[in-house]
Amino acid sequence: MNIVQLEYFLAASRTLNFTRAAEECFTSRQNLSRAIRDLERELGVSLFNQGKGSLALTVEGRSEEHTSEL
Hints:
By secondary structure, the protein is mostly helical.
C-alpha cells in the first residue's frame, strides 16, 4: 500500500466517480482504477461496488476497521 493508492481511494470515495477522482488527482481513470484494484487485492476486500453509471462504497469500504489499515 502506498500514499498514491490512499489518495486515489479518498478521492474516489469523496466523489463516487472514478473519472472525477482521476481528474482531481491529475491521473488517468485507468491509473486510478488500477491503483484501487491493487489496494483492494492487498486488503483482500472490495472497496467499491460499480454498477452501470454508478459507484458506491461497499460495507468494507466504509468500515473503520479496514480504513484504519490504510
